[in-house]
Amino acid sequence: EERLVDSGGGTVQPGGSLRLSCSASGFSFRDYMMNWVRQAPGKGPEWVAHISVSGTITHYANFVKGRFTISRDSAKNTLYLQMNNLQPEDTASYFCARGPDWAHTTNRGQGTQVTVRS
């Protein structure tokens, strides 16, 4: 069974940091481009970041540039999202998504909740 399991969420104060993880199993993780996507309550999914198969090419949504870093460890079948300087507007459920972009996702994690509040 192909699975993506998200973890690492929590509650932090504004300016705080979290590192999210997405553990992959049941498929060849190293062969897929990956993304992080978030969804705030009452809103649709919002693409956050993308990483290439090799990990050498990354892209970010404008609202996270300079604050978030996407990375991958294909030896561990794990995708990461390092989030720094978190703000209340970053509050959302974050999930990893397999594929070239959100519109062409072929599998996704269950999500991990990030809450930023004073």
Provide structural commentary:
The protein is mainly β. 0% of the residues lie in helices and 48% in strands. It contains no helices and eleven strands. It has strands at residues 3-7, 10-12, 18-25, 34-39, 46-51, 58-60, 68-73, 78-83, 92-98, 107-108, 112-116. Strands 2, 4, 5, 6, 9, 10 and 11 form a seven-stranded mixed β-sheet that branches. A four-stranded antiparallel β-sheet has the order 1-3-8-7, with no helix packed on it. The relative contact order is 0.32.
Secondary structure layout plus pairing:
Elements: E1 3-7, E2 10-12, E3 18-25, E4 34-39, E5 46-51, E6 58-60, E7 68-73, E8 78-83, E9 92-98, E10 107-108, E11 112-116
Parallel strand pairs: 2-11
Antiparallel strand pairs: 1-3, 3-8, 4-5, 4-9, 5-6, 7-8, 9-10, 9-11
Determine Rg (CA atoms, Å). Answer: 13 Å
Which stretches of 5+ consecutive residues score pLDDT under 50? Answer: none
Tally of contiguous helical segments: 0
How can the largest sheet be summarized?
A: 7 strands, mixed
Q: SSE order, as H and E?
A: EEEEEEEEEEE
Bin the helical content: under 10%
Strand content: over 45%
Mean pLDDT: 96
Secondary structure tally: strands: 11
